[in-house]
Amino acid sequence: MRTKNSATAPTSIAVTGGKATSAAPATSAAPATMAAPAGTAVGGTLQAALGVAAFSLTFPATAWGLESFGPWSLVAVRSLLAALIAGVCLLGLRVPLPARRHWAGLAVVAAGVVLGFPLLTTLALQTSTTAHAAVVVGLLPLTTALFSALRVGTRPSRTFWTAALAGAAAVVAFTVQQSGGALTTADLYLFAALLVCAAGYTEGGRLARVMPGWQVIGWALVLCLPLTAPVAAVALSYEPVHLTWHGVTGLLWVAAGSQFLGMVVWYRGMAAIGIPKASQLQLAQPLLTLVWSVLLLGEHLTVAAPLTAAAVLVCIAVTQRARG
Predict the structure, then answer these.
(1) CB 69 within 8 A of CB 232
(2) Interatomic CA distance for residues 37 and 243, integer angstroms
(3) What is the reported pLDDT for 179?
(4) What is the pTM of this model?
């Protein structure tokens, strides 16, 4: 999500099928395929990294939230609260409705990022540890890059793909080893979450080139209100609620931190440095999640953690330097 208001920006660029078409005279808009200035790349990388840091807390916060709420209640209420935050921002800044051509993309973001990924991972976390759930996050950068290549037309270099595959393999090997490597019903939820989230990230990153990123997630959240509001009411009436400090804190974080603020800086970063390179920063997310799991949930790490972290950092460095 972006903090700029593209509704009034005269030089927005629409990206369709990997090609850029300027909404303003050619002299006022840079092609979407042009390399970003160094300052923009650094700022974009920082913002994407902040998004990853926010997302790394999602699984531990969800585990906390499940102490007080049922899975359907937690997902519906988190989306509802995030939509209220986004709606206040959109109304307060008098942001006009997106163009009709953008609503299909916003629906993909809503289905993948607002509804699909939170619901599927929450269902998985009922029986899975946060370490095991981190497997999906380890695979997400590569899946997002693949979706980007298919949807946006990006063609990263062979070096990029080699480093991305190596990083993904390191993360998967580590997280699977930590969780015992047994496939369960929770894995089906996680693999499905992987696919829908990658689609949502890709479409959101594409839309973030033509409107501020915060508006992308904001409108996606608002788009889900007709569904999340009644589902929240029904779920809360059927699933037991036992309010605890952990449960309320977890709910507030996944609603405000993961669902909205994290998405704001994440989509800003993707628009600045590109979807494939931004997605590779998520290779560090499973390890960050494991750190939070130790600090917040009392889980234990093995000596493999720092070794995997070093390997992942090398892979990230290679993907950031590779020309795609």
Answers:
(1) no
(2) 48
(3) 67
(4) 0.76
